Amino acid sequence: MDSTQIPPAVGVAGSDRPRLARHVRLSFCRTRKRPILQLPETVVVLNGSGADILERCDGRHTVAEIVASLGARYETIPDEEVRQFLTRLVARRCVELVHG
Amino acid sequence: MDSPFGLLAELTYRCPLACAYCSNPLNLADYSDELATGEWRRVLAEASDLGVLQCHLSGGEPLLRRDLVEIVAAAHDLGLYTNLVTSAIGLSRRRAEQLRTAGLDHVQVSIQADDPAGSDRIAGIPSFQRKVEAMGVVKKLGWPLTMNVVLHRYNIDRVADVLGLAEEVGADRVELANTQYYGWAWRNRDALLPSRAQLDAAEVVVRAARERLRDRMDVIYVLPDYYSRYPKPCMGGWASRQLTVTPNGDVLPCPAAQSLPLPRASVREDSLERIWAESPVMTAFRGTDWMP
Questions:
Q1: Going by C-beta distance under 8 Å and a sequence separation of 6 or more, which residues neighbour residue B273?
Q2: Which ipTM score applies to this complex?
Q3: Over the stretch A29-72, which tens digit does the pLDDT of each residue have?
Q4: Which of the residues A53, A90, B67, B75 has an alpha carbon 20 to 30 A from that of A6?
Q5: Residues of A with CB under 8 A from a CB of B
């Protein structure tokens, strides 16, 4: 709908504590068999690792802690990819950062 | 064929306002035989099975439906993200609390302008003060709030003040929606269409506001097709992502499609699944095969 969204000025730091924005719901779509984010005007269809990251975004754990906890589950979850994923969602206002 | 993500549930075309840009059909009387509560429950369940994840409860004024709380509860129980699109007339504290309890996720309130006299003149009734109060209730109950303003020749020059009001009421999103010229707005286009210069001036204000407010508020600005380089793809593709159910149960790919000479499809006569997959109103312009 809106093609001129402004990207955030800075990326996500390891010490930031991400959380889902208040108007966003993490859920599962039975029809598509995929995890999703529900927002007032859009739906974001996620892959499994995206959902794993967002489930850990509770405003208490830092990005570094989330990466570490995912490392126990996946062979490789590069820190850089997690931060890029969260940066994109911050730009879309799906995720908010509590600066650590 | 894709599964739809969103359902626009037009619960009624009755409305206390009389805006000249209304996109509802001209033949409003044809839609007075409204779906009953049980029929809406069935439509919502079938929509959910089809893959719908968002439900926009709209109209007309959806608060005029006495069963709105029940309809919200039914949508919520199906896991749909529920969005009330309202003029806020009839959104008392008590009604708001009932809707909150029923699981309503988000509220979008329309205002017609940022100043009481201008807003009331466009709406056709004294309503501005009640809208501002209702937006206060929405925020108090902890809902995310979108403030929507339809822009046209008579209010687009005040877009900075409109944004100021959105800040004042604590909106999380503001939709500055230029009039789309369908229905009544098409009939009234000579009175409503702004000039290119008015649009350019508004765009400068919107860009600056976006930058200034980016940590606090989403600023959505929708250009009228008239002044876009190319018209938008309808609803992100005809019968691809969204569907509309009108107050009497007609199913459409978008609200404006009612004006096209295509056979009707109604939830009173068929399942939503079959209508989505097979009815001519859905298949007529789906994909690109229909193009010459």
A1: B46, B49, B50
A2: 0.81
A3: 999 999 999 998 889 999 988 999 999 999 999 999 999 888 87
A4: A53
A5: 1-2, 4, 6, 8, 22-23, 25, 27, 29, 31-32, 36, 38-41, 43, 93
